[in-house]
């Protein structure tokens, strides 16, 4: 094989079959970044790494090389516990949940009535 | 950067006449209802086998395109004409590899391991965008790739970012954000040649002449008549036909070349009264021959990629945990 590009010819590219072995791509870590002090850490994606320290390094390259970032967390994907989307109905709110919302408590009418009755 | 998802004729022939055979119809109805409402599908959701298969194929091809797409540009880093261009090119090539990581992750959430995807690339089983089977012989080629190929990729990616599969949409959103820099630096480098000396303009025109056909091929052959396409559109795997995307691209970019007093080597390239761009027959036989392995650079691209795999193996092996089980990324 002859390339027009001498750089390619110098490395002697490999023409015969080659394969990546299972496990060579390591395992996924979930990445969370904090844009500025005071913000929450937000999930931005994942990286593949052989250990947590290496995962942080890859996370910095992958998710911290452009936008503002002051801190990052990585968590092994295998260690994350989550709900199943099939169970989404557990998040459905009962129709009457006013008692746990600010809008469920209205005092202005009572105050006005009191003021009117006691001028 | 990326071309449109490509189905080879052999693969199209393997296509089952009824891709929905054996599916749970109740689940299917809920799935389609969710998509029709504009909700995203997440990796843990039920999905038809055909949806999973097509998405893996498409996202994987996209990821491979990012990896291979970095090769024609990467080889120009040492020869960039100025320090600023060199810095921009290094940054762009790093972005492309970063995009590949994002996309491999998105494809992995559907159940195919990264190793299996890389192996299908190395063996030639999986395709990647056909434009990267052509050489970048001069610096002007790098500017044409940076402006027009990335421009075409953005048209495709912005449209697909509105698709139905959550992880793919999230990856594309991030990619589109970075591509805006690629496009600007490509345009800047191209305009620099276009307003330069006679020799610089001639070099640029020569590159436009050579890249015209691959650019027309970029979005793939017309797929308006494809029955299969209808299902993928309904499932929001495909968001626009190849012709519509190509037309949108030509509409945006041909004027940007013509305003520089340059043109593509096709006297028939013009917008008709209905607003549709017409062009000469771009020789689809050449497209099929190239994507099936007979283009000018196919063998070289894969051989360079194999070299990279072999030479990086000792690092990956030294750090790997031999007892590791396969884990899918969460999202």
Number of self-contained structural domains of chain B: 1
Count of folded domains of chain A: 1
| Range of helix content of chain A | 10-25%
Note the overall shape of chain B: globular
Unreliable residue stretches of chain B = none
Looking at CATH, the homologous superfamily of chain A is Phenylacetic acid degradation B
Strand order of the largest sheet of chain A: 2-1-3
List SSEs of chain B in N-to-C order. HHHHHHHHHHEEHH
Quaternary state of this entry equals: heterodimer
The most extensive interface between chains reads: A-B, 44 and 48 residues
Helical amount of chain B? 55-70%
- The tally of beta strands of chain B, per DSSP, is 2
Let me know the CATH homologous superfamily of chain B.
Answer: Ferritin, core subunit, four-helix bundle
Judged by helices, strands and strand pairing, the structural class of chain A is alpha+beta
Major sheet of chain A? 3 strands, antiparallel
Strand order of the largest sheet of chain B: 1-2
Which shape of chain A, going by the Cα principal axes? Answer: elongated
CATH topology label of chain B: Ferritin
How much of the residues of chain B is beta strand, in percent?
Answer: under 5%
Characterise this structure:
The complex is a heterodimer of chains A (119) and B (331). Chain A has one domain (24-117): Ubiquitin-like (UB roll) (Roll). Chain A is built from three helices and three strands. Chain A has helices at 6-11, 52-63, 108-117; strands spanning 27-34, 42-49, 71-76. In chain A, strands 2-1-3 form a three-stranded antiparallel beta sheet, covered by helices on one side. Chain A is elongated, with a radius of gyration of 28 Å. Chain B is globular. In chain B, β1 (270-271) and β2 (277-278) form a beta hairpin. With 331 residues, chain B is mostly helical. The mean pLDDT of chain B is 93. Chains A and B meet through α1, β1, β2 and α2 of A and α4, α5, α7 and α12 of B.
């Amino acid at each position: 094989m002859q390339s027009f590009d001498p750089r390619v010819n110098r490395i002697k590219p490999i023409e015969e079959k080659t394969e990546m072995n299972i496990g060579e791509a390591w395992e996924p870590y979930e990445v969370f970044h904090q844009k500025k002090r005071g913000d929450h850490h937000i999930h931005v994606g994942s990286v593949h790494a052989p250990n947590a320290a290496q995962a942080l390094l890859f996370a910095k390259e992958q998710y911290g090389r452009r936008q503002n970032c002051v801190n990052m967390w990585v968590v092994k994907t295998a260690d994350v516990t989550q709900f199943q989307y099939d169970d989404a109905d557990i998040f459905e709110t009962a129709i009457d949940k006013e008692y746990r919302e600010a809008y469920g408590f209205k005092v202005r009418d009572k105050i006005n009535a009191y003021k009117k009755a006691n001028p | 950067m990326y071309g449109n998802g490509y189905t080879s004729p052999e693969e199209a022939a393997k296509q089952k006449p009824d891709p929905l055979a054996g599916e749970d119809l109740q689940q299917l109805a809920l799935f389609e209802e969710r998509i029709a409402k504009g909700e995203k599908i997440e990796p843990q959701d039920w999905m038809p086998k055909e949806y999973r298969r097509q998405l893996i194929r498409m996202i994987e091809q996209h990821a491979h395109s990012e990896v291979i797409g970095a090769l024609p540009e990467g080889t120009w880093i040492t020869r960039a004409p100025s320090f600023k261009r060199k810095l921009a090119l290094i940054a762009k090539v790093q972005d492309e590899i970063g995009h590949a990581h994002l996309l491999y992750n998105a494809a992995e959430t559907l159940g195919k391991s990264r190793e299996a995807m890389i192996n299908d690339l190395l063996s030639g089983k999986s395709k990647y965008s056909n434009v990267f089977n052509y050489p970048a012989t001069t610096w002007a080629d790098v500017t044409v790739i940076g402006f027009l190929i990335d421009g075409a990729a953005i048209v495709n990616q912005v449209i697909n970012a509105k698709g139905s599969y959550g992880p793919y949409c999230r990856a594309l959103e991030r990619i589109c954000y970075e591509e805006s820099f690629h496009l600007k630096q490509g345009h800047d480098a191209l305009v620099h040649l276009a307003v330069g000396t006679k020799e610089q303009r001639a070099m640029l025109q020569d590159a436009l002449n050579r890249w015209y056909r691959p650019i027309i091929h970029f979005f793939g052959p017309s797929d308006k008549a494809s029955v299969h396409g209808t299902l993928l559109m309904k499932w929001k795997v495909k968001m626009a036909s190849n012709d519509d995307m190509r037309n949108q691209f030509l509409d945006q970019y041909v004027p940007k070349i013509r305003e520089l007093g340059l043109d593509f080597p096709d006297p028939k390239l013009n917008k008709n009264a209905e607003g549709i761009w017409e062009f000469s027959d771009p020789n689809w036989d050449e497209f099929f021959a190239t994507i099936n392995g007979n283009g000018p650079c196919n063998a070289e691209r894969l051989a360079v990629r194999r070299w990279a795999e072999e030479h990086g193996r000792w690092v990956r092996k030294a750090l790997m945990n031999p007892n590791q089980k396969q884990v899918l990324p969460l999202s």
